[in-house]
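Box S1 | Example of a co-folding query
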Amino acid sequence: MSVIILGIESSCDDTSAAVIKDGLLLSNVVASQAVHESYGGVVPELASRAHQQNIVPVVHEALKRAGVSKEELSAVAFTRGPGLMGSLLVGVSFAKGFARSLNIPLIDVNHLNAHVLAHFIKEKNEVIKQPAFPFLCLLVSGGNSQIILVKAYNEMEILGQTIDDAAGEAIDKCSKVMGLGYPGGPIVDRLARQGNPKAFSFSKPHIPGLDYSFSGLKTSFLYSLRDWIKEDPDFIEHHRTDLAASLEATIVDILMDKLRKAAKQYHIKEVAIAGGVSANNGLRNAFREHAEKYGWEVYIPKFSYTTDNAAMIAITGYLKYLDKDFCSIELPAYSRVTLS
Ligand code: KG4
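Box S1 (continued) | Returned holo structure for KG4
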């Protein structure tokens, strides 16, 4: 009998539902919330309200596109955390009610594990190269910057992580200082393509081991800009593309330095990236260059699986379903958690 999993994601500002049948993705619907743009960041209360409005139509659309009726579902997988509590509660409550009404199992998914396992999403008629265990995954998003040793789909170890800001957070904050829109990542990425990455230099952290730090870079960016603006009030306007390219290059260098160190230390050449910042073209190029230079086998996700999506929740749910790894309806959401 087929295994059909409905995945539900609502950890931040994307309401998403996806259907996976026997390991193949049938649908992945994402409703992003434009309401936050004018605030320069996600407003938690607005996010949970928008999830409440979106969740039913998004799930309905995912089932419709998959050509699957709710009675055919084998289980419902949902993001338990980490994330914004008000946002999580909408998805968690919906998943619990839906699974209970259909009398099918519930599967809790750690959002961070799911980002890593996005590399196992397979679409119909698609031949994909999947990483072989053990592999390293650089998970970079608005909330995380981690180097993860992935020993099995359900066995992950954090080798290093940021001690302050995440890479995406640093890009977003620097972009805000430049008066660009939100989220800054895609804007900086676009501007950087036309700029000189060596035009300006910003301070890089000296943190031992495999941990990251981005708060110093953020301060260095802010103070440098202040000085330059004193000389030329239109400095940002005159140098926007070079600033974006130099900022991006510094962040990519910081990320890749530690990743190289980890690959060497653990003798691993299977290396993946995941999370929102993995959409960045500079980072993707650096991965390809490292593959060439160091003989790495690199795994770069499709753009649609870099930012938050339910396809990654559904594939994680599918793998857990095969192990009959279900959860109780009593299980609460959690806002802060590391890998499980
Ligand atoms: O994984 P994600 O969608 O959400 C979480 O943080 O969980 O990541 C969002 C982050 C934001 O900081 C956004 O600016 C960044 O990913 N981002 C990018 C790009 N696209 C999204 N950063 C750099 N280049 C991009 N193309």
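The chain has a mean pLDDT of 95. Residues 12, 141-143, 168, 171-172, 183-186, 189, 275-277, 279-280, 307-308 surround KG4 (CB under 6 Å).
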